Amino acid sequence: MKQPLQFTLRWGIYLICSVLIIQSCIHEKEEEPDDDGDGVANAIDICPDIPNSDQADDDGDGIGDACEDDTDEDGVIDDLDNCPTTPNADQADANDDGIGDACEGDEDGDGVLNFLDNCPDVANPDQADFDGDGIGDSCDETLVAEDQEHIDSALDMTFNCIRSLKNGDGLDLIMEDMLSFSDGEFGEVVWIDAIMENLSSDLFDNLEEGDGLGLYLNDIGGVYEFNDSDSTWEQTSTSKTRLELQFPSSEKSSSNNASLILDNYAEEDISYDGDTYHLPTSAALSLTVDGTELMGIFINDIVYGKGELPIPTKVDIEVYINPTTIHVVVEKGDKNNYAADLNISGDDGCSFGVGLEVELAHDDFENINIEEDVESLTVEVRLQHMSIVTMSDLATILSLDDPSESQINELMDLDILINNFKVADVEFNQSEDELYLIFKDESKEDAFSYFEHFFEDVLGLVEDYTGELFGD
């Protein structure tokens, strides 16, 4: 059946209008400009010149992130960057002050940012703060009373270090168990004599003579057990790199509970006066009792000279006496300059020692005259956080027969330092025959008022072994 003409005409008009509308839209879309070609027309593009199809705008200012300035090129736009001129992509800000850690100042250039630095104007990379007042030692001006307290505390701490060594198991083993040494005398039975009686013959009798003085670990290495009944040693195994002696730690021990072990041994052949010596360049010698190390001697490095007398040009040795380590380093510099350092430290962090530098007139050590041949000498004594330093040359004093007070003070030039900061001078008063500490406020104290009790306390420890050294 045919549709009415009116209905057909209506749908025709609708169709024609729809086509015209679609064509118009397509035409408009094709013609609307998009300069950056990101698919977003310029009219609605928040970054019309730089492609940014996602139209990201993190700070909501109507300008797309793609065309916001990023001066430091760290991927964070300047408006959001708390360090706009220094790359800091992670935007770290430890103190939440709105300034990124990467661009916080470091005025003293010590690697610690100003807001974290307890001395922002003076370099102190370790951030040491001896008195815990929040001001770093490098810029902490102390009072004289504080300096005096620090001197006392340094001496007290050093004494405690020495007492720890004296009371340690290592020294007890040697002095009491093996040497029976007390009050200046040896006991009737010295246990180490019994241990050593046949050791040399049992180890070295099979070696051929004429090969020079040396240890010959390659020939004698192995494990040796001590026989208490006749004080002889029996080799129970062999080794070319290690020597172990097993023996009782004291006369009262019922078994070979102690072990003396030598390994990591190396040597160098040295010729002197027609003879050959096989001298060690490195070694590790340790003594354990019931599985605990009580003593050790560790030769880290020895370098022998090449002259007529092969004096070492470097010595680096550590001695461990539970719970204390004694470290000695001696090294030859240019010409006849030598530097030596002895440091004593404990497991509890205590540390004291002495360092010196000396220049000799020649290297004929068999004919050294201290008064004439020592051309320069400087010394530093370290007692925990305190040091006593010669800032001048002691050699000239040694060369004077009867130096005056002014000569002594000028040439000696002793300073007291706390944490490397000078707190007092040491001066000699010839008329009073006294040494004085001159503090920063020009006040002075008798030096022995600080050091006398320290020396008395140390002597008290030593005299347990040696007996009374001085009378009343």
What would you say this structure looks like, in words?
This protein has helices at residues 5-31, 144-167, 169-178, 191-196, 199-204, 217-220, 370-373, 395-399, 405-412, 447-466; strands at 181-182, 185-186, 222-227, 232-238, 243-247, 258-272, 275-289, 292-304, 312-321, 324-332, 337-346, 351-360, 374-383, 386-390, 414-418, 421-429, 434-439, 444-446. The chain starts with a helix and ends in a 6-residue tail after the last helix. Strand 1 and strand 2 form a beta hairpin. It has 472 residues and is of the alpha+beta class. The longest helix is centred in the N-terminal third of the chain and has 27 residues, at 5-31. It has ten helices and 18 strands. Helix 2 (144-167) packs parallel to helix 10. Strands 4-3-5-6-7-8-9-10-11-12-13-14-15-16-17-18 form a 16-stranded mixed β-sheet. The protein has a two-stranded antiparallel ribbon with strand order 1-2.
